[in-house]
Amino acid sequence: MADIIYTLEGGTYFNITNKCPCSCSFCIRKKGDAVGSAKRLWFDKEPTFEEIKAAIDSYDFSDVDSAVFCGYGEPTNALENLLKTAKYIKTVKPSIKLRLNTNGLSDLINGRPTAKEICECIDIISVSLNDPDSEQYDKITKNIFPGKAFDAMLKFTRECVEQGNEVHMTVVDVISPENIEKSRKICEELGAKFIVRSYARGR
């Protein structure tokens, strides 16, 4: 079994699926089998909620005040387990702040609007904007929803903002400074906080 809970630079992370509708050119999972304290993040089979719950029950959360759903897959590809896990963690440690790192394609993945139910149990939503142009976004992410993904990601982000949650949008510093600034404007228009991530650091 791969690591379900791991730490990276002092943060606590949940790896609940390896499935993802994208194959981003800069994806950290292309660098190796694990990051941070994890020995392995690739599952031989997708974890059940019972296995995720067991990992939570055996983990010491006493000094953990925040945790992130971000492993070697898109967390909303395991939406039911994501929601169950978030709700369960809140019963284990009600004060913990939960963040979801997502590509924002949950609605396309699950075939329905999902922002409201996600925002009901996740405190912070961080969406990977990647690029300010739909065509280039498809080239960078190599997603399975070409022509639809970019607009769906923006819609999901907007609906998360409307729910009143803290919402971030991120780009990786492999794109041009011009496109970083265009991305910043898109983010501001949606009412989200803009973050530029470092490819070299893997975050």
Question: What does this entry look like structurally?
Answer:
With 203 residues, the chain is of the alpha/beta class. The protein has 7 helices and 7 strands. It has a 7-stranded mixed β-sheet, covered by helices on one side. A hairpin with a 2-residue loop joins β1 and β2. α1 (49-57) packs parallel to α2 (79-92). It is globular.
Q: Could you tell me the mean pLDDT?
A: 95
> What ranges have pLDDT less than 50 throughout 5 or more consecutive residues?
none
Element-level helix/strand string? EEHEHEHHEHHEHE
Span between termini: 24 Å
Report the biggest beta sheet as strand number plus sense, adding barrel if it closes: 7 strands, mixed
**Overall spatial form:** globular
Number of strands: 7
Rg over CA atoms? 16 Å
What is the strand arrangement across the widest sheet? Answer: 1-2-3-4-5-6-7
Please report which band the strand proportion falls in: under 5%, 5-15%, 15-25%, 25-35%, 35-45% or over 45%.
Answer: 15-25%
- How many H/I helical runs? 7
